[in-house]
């Protein structure tokens, strides 16, 4: 028997229900082209459908997405179905075969559902004159097609507490079944493999997101923002870009220190594109 309060699971379950109940971000796209050409990697078989005129850094690194150009914008469509087994593929859902019985420390009650995420971003992103709030909901897409959220839980919840709800690959679903990462999840990132910058995803403003180390192999620290100017790190990309920020000063509501290398902070550097989801 574990010597924990009988109420603790209830309290933590409540946190899980309340947090991540945001359906989606913001803005609407006039044309939703989501169709059967959007890969479904839930079986673990990786398929990708990216047009040859999409910028090479996207074409060569992203999987489990449909991507094409629309004028000067890149349109990326994803179901946000993780290409591995997860506790959050429910045991009694249509994805039961992908259910991993190993539960997170304090699982949330949500289950993964297929999404129709359409994100449209500029192919030549520019730094805006003033930073904009990143906001709750989808703020980017990881290289494996899973969507990205920022460094915040739904207020007043504590993102540090939510780490205990992540599955063995570092993600969890919202109430609406949107499976997502907030941080450099183990599914997309390993510190020991990060020698000179590892691409983790694309942000809603069109800029790339890299791992915790810059091209010199130095961990990127910051407080409040993970924006790094291109001229500090041109070896990775000609674009300005984000880094997962190594952050070890978060504490859970019970006072335990945790590390959460978030991917997008409270603000974004460029003008946000559009994203829709069901
Ligand atoms: Zn979350």
Structural notes for this entry:
With 278 residues, this protein is mainly beta. The protein has one domain. The chain is 7% helix and 22% strand. The protein has three helices and 17 strands. Strands 8-9-7-6-10-11-13-12 form an eight-stranded mixed beta sheet, with no helix packed on it. A five-stranded mixed beta sheet has the order 1-2-3-4-17, with no helix packed on it. A hairpin with a 4-residue loop joins strand 6 and strand 7. Bound molecules: zinc ion. Zinc ion (ZN) binds at residues 20, 149, 162, 172, 180, 182. Zinc ion binds at residues 20, 149, 162, 172, 180, 182.
How would you describe this structure in keywords?
single chain; 278 residues; mainly beta; eight-stranded mixed sheet; five-stranded mixed sheet; 3 helices; 7% helix; globular; disordered N terminus; binds zinc ion
The average pLDDT value, as a whole number, equals 82
Strand order of the largest sheet: 8-9-7-6-10-11-13-12
Head-to-tail CA distance between termini: 41 Å
Number of helices: 3
In short:
The protein is mainly beta.
Task: Please render the helix and strand layout as text.
Blueprint: H1 8-18, E1 49-50, H2 56-59, E2 66-70, E3 73-78, E4 117-122, E5 127-133, E6 140-142, E7 147-148, H3 159-162, E8 172-173, E9 179-181, E10 199-203, E11 208-210, E12 227-228, E13 241-243, E14 250-251, E15 257-258, E16 267-270, E17 274-276
Parallel strand pairs: 1-2, 7-9, 11-13
Antiparallel strand pairs: 2-3, 3-4, 4-17, 5-16, 6-7, 6-10, 8-9, 10-11, 12-13, 14-15
